[in-house]
Automatic annotation (TrEMBL), chain A:
InterPro entries in UniProt: Cell_div_suppressor_SulA, ImuA_translesion, P-loop_NTPase, UCP037290
Protein name stated in the entry: Translesion DNA synthesis-associated protein ImuA
Taxonomic lineage from the root: Bacteria, Pseudomonadati, Pseudomonadota, Gammaproteobacteria, Alteromonadales
Family matches, as SUPFAM superfamilies: P-loop containing nucleoside triphosphate hydrolases (SSF52540)
Pfam families listed in its UniProt record: SulA
Domain of life: Bacteria
Automatic annotation (TrEMBL), chain B:
Protein name per Swiss-Prot or TrEMBL: DNA polymerase Y family protein
Pfam families, per the entry: IMS (PF00817)
PANTHER family noted in UniProt: BLR3025 PROTEIN, BLR3025 PROTEIN-RELATED
Organism for this UniProt entry: Neiella holothuriorum
Domain UmuC as annotated: residue spans: 28-147
Highest taxon, organism lineage: Bacteria
UniProt keyword list: DNA damage
Key word Protease present: no
Alphabetical list of InterPro entries matching this protein: DNA/RNA_pol_sf, SulA_CellDiv_inhibitor, UmuC
Length: 239, 473
């Protein structure tokens, strides 16, 4: 049997075949990330974002995709660690009437709710924090993967950084680390269609320099860059 | 039919109404219903097959078949069952009266033209009643009481002509007439054996000789005196009463009868082109106050499958304080059905739900407070600028406030800033507001960064206390 016939029947495929046609990917709205993921988030698949802490830009990485997906269908936030704040979501272009915040009582219910929302086909985007109480098993991720395919929905699984060493059936895994207010360090552990590339840093919209804040510019010199430190009772901090 | 057609009455008699209903809803158990003197008055088919007959003392019945279920006759329950049966008949009859205890009085002559003849009308009516699996027999009559008297006597003549009915009526023995034993005795004492003999005596003599009751009954029979009754009007909401033969201890046991009732609800709604936004279940216990369960839907529904799915999820999380004796299912909030536009080709997902169905499903399993929708509020205080509610809020019409940077994550409560070095990244945004409802705030908001590079939203109060209020996720 020749190599060509194997290739033709699809039993053998080339690792270098990069699918950038947009049929199997969903543009993330950030050019550097699209390049990293060979066209964008894998469509109707589970993507894992691994990070520790909060406020490192984990949502800013998703906001452009969420804004695009939320125009037509619902976005489900399952067990978010804090309240997704509507004024900020609105500024990012998300349709507020399509945001659903689900807070299940325990791990089992959270998995059930995630699967239901994915399967329903009416939530194109689901973002889930499932690791409050116990770790998500590999077979659960596989199940969510199937549900996402069935409902043609996108699941972003937000997980702690510690699970990076474990294997996972997700289509794409990114480890996020903060660098500064306007860039984030992204290490791709796994992506569809190619080997994992070396880590890169991606620039994000800077929160402190948003357009709405233009009138602060004049006084910016006075305050920004200043260091403050507690304990606050004893010391006069900000001059 | 011309409007001058004399009315023809049909009396549908259900001699074993309660026994038949209880038996068929409990897997064809053998059921007998007792009167106040503990004598059997109704038997279901299964009990009848064991040789149990009306009039037996209950001890005899139990001797014959020890597994027999005994129930006391409940007139109120029978009335509820009659209303259900009347709803079934209402498809074919416009005028139905609930004038008698164990049967329905139906006026049929006015319907013959619509259903192309007497025979085909009766066939349809009979078919729909047979599906209810409650034994019945029917007799026609030119007056309500004549039809009742014939049916009560056990004569099934739904299609007979008036002359034939009259003939049959005249031959009825006194013992078969719906009169009290005393009245029957009095009539026998004076040598009257058949109804025909009674009708031969002039009315004035009846009034003279016997008390007025027999005279009144005769006048109603002949049609000289109209019978007082009220027409049945189908209720505006769906209600079903379900009486258990055995007390039900687990919610799983409720699911089976509930499925059937919800199927009936779906049929009820389809016939009327209606949908409902909530289904209420009342579970009555022996001692404990009634348990109320509401299945609330995010959007109007009429399909049985959707109700059953929700009921299953809701009942899973329900703990019964005591076994259930009676279940009442009610759907009161009815709205016109709306068919959502669907795409013939696009949807290939067999389990696809629309957003409303998804929200209902999540809410019934997780609880209403766990599935919330976001909305923005035009309030300058950051903690009041959003709302989480179980129902979708209308899009605020107010223009977007022109404010500084806002974080994606808001802490439900501001927390004191931990004592670590923070670098302020922006100039302060001062918010002084809230004077109108006694929750005034005066805060300077900054974007700050900690040593791990995490961006947060902090504020300073006039007392120079620092709080963290959000994260720039």
């Amino acid at each position: 049997m020749s190599l060509q016939s194997l290739l033709n029947t699809g039993r053998l495929w080339r690792g270098a075949n990069q699918r950038t046609d947009g049929q199997h990917t969903l543009s993330s709205g950030i050019q550097a990330l699209d390049q990293l993921l060979l066209g964008g988030w894998p469509k109707a698949q589970v993507s894992e974002l691994l990070y520790s802490g909060q406020g490192i830009g984990e949502l800013r990485l998703l906001l452009p995709s969420l804004a695009a997906l939320s125009q037509q269908s619902h976005t489900a936030w399952i067990n978010p660690p804090f309240v997704p704040y509507p004024p900020a979501l609105q500024d990012a272009g998300l349709a507020l009437k399509h945001q659903l915040v689900v807070s299940p009582a325990d791990h089992k219910q959270a998995l059930w709710a995630t699967e239901q929302t994915l399967k329903s086909g009416s939530c194109m985007a689901v973002i889930a924090w499932l690791e409050q109480q116990q770790e998500v098993a590999s077979r659960d991720i596989r199940r969510l993967q199937l549900a996402a395919e069935q409902g043609q929905s996108q699941l972003w699984l937000m997980r702690p950084e510690q699970v990076a060493q474990q294997s996972s059936p997700s289509a794409c895994r990114l480890v996020l680390t903060a660098i500064s207010s306007h860039s984030i360090h992204v290490h791709c552990l796994k992506r569809r269609g190619s080997w994992a590339p070396p880590p890169i840093s991606i620039s994000l919209p800077d929160v402190s320099r948003s357009e709405q804040a233009h009138w602060f510019r004049a006084t910016e010199q006075q305050c920004s860059g200043q260091l403050i430190q507690g304990p606050w009772q004893q010391r006069q901090s900000a001059h | 039919m011309s409007p001058t057609t004399p009315p023809v009455w049909l009396y549908l008699h259900f001699p074993h109404l309660q026994a038949d209903q209880l038996s068929q809803q409990d897997d064809n158990a053998a059921v007998a219903v007792l009167d106040q003197h503990k004598r059997v008055i109704q038997v279901c088919q299964q009990a009848e097959a064991q040789g149990i007959q009306p009039g037996m003392p209950f001890t005899t019945a139990l001797q014959l078949y020890p597994e027999l279920q005994l129930q006391v006759q409940k007139p109120q329950y029978q009335q509820q069952l009659l209303i259900q049966l009347a709803e079934t008949c209402y498809q074919y009859c416009a005028q139905i009266a609930l004038a008698f205890e164990q049967g329905l009085l139906v006026e049929v002559a006015s319907m013959w033209r619509l259903f192309t003849g007497r025979a085909s009308h009766w066939q349809l009516l009979e078919q729909s009643l047979l599906e209810q699996k409650i034994r019945f027999h029917a007799a026609a009559g030119h007056t309500p009481v004549a039809a009742y008297t014939l049916a009560q006597a056990g004569i099934a003549m739904p299609l007979a002509a008036t002359a034939e009915l009259q003939q049959q009526l005249l031959q009825l023995p006194v013992a078969a007439l719906p009169l009290t034993l005393r009245q029957q005795q009095k009539l026998t004492d004076v040598g009257i054996k058949q109804l025909g003999q009674m009708l031969a005596i002039p009315m004035a003599d009846w009034k003279c000789r016997f008390n007025g009751e027999i005279a009144l009954w005769l006048a109603q029979l002949t049609g000289d005196q109209p019978l007082a009754y009220q027409w049945f009007e189908p209720p505006a909401c769906f209600t079903r009463h379900w009486h258990c033969l055995h007390e039900i201890q687990h919610t799983n046991g409720l699911l089976f009868p509930l499925q059937r009732i919800l199927g009936e609800l779906s049929q009820y709604l389809r016939q009327r082109q209606l949908a409902t936004v909530s289904v209420e279940l009342a579970l009555e216990h022996r001692e404990h106050p009634t348990t109320q369960v509401t299945l609330r839907l995010a959007q109007p529904e009429h399909l049985a499958g959707e109700f059953i799915q929700l009921a299953r999820l809701r009942l899973q999380s329900l703990v019964l304080p005591e076994p259930v004796m009676v279940m009442i299912v009610k759907a009161a909030e009815l709205v016109p059905q709306q068919q959502l536009p669907t795409d013939l080709f696009a949807n290939t997902n067999s389990q696809a739900l629309n957003a409303g169905q998804l929200i209902s499903r999540l809410q019934s399993r997780l609880g209403q407070a766990q599935v919330l929708q976001l909305a923005a509020c035009p309030d300058p205080r950051p903690e009041n600028a959003y709302r989480l509610s179980a129902e979708s809020a209308p899009e605020p019409t107010a223009a977007r406030a022109d404010h500084g940077a806002r974080p994606c994550w808001l802490l439900p409560q501001p927390k004191p800033l931990p004592a670590a070095p923070w670098e302020l990244k922006t100039a302060p945004e001062r918010i002084v507001t809230g004077w109108w409802d006694n929750q005034p705030i005066q805060r300077d908001y900054f974007v700050a960064e900690d040593q791990q590079g995490q961006q947060c939203w902090v504020y300073r109060t006039p007392k120079n206390e620092w709080f963290i209020h959000g994260w720039f996720g």
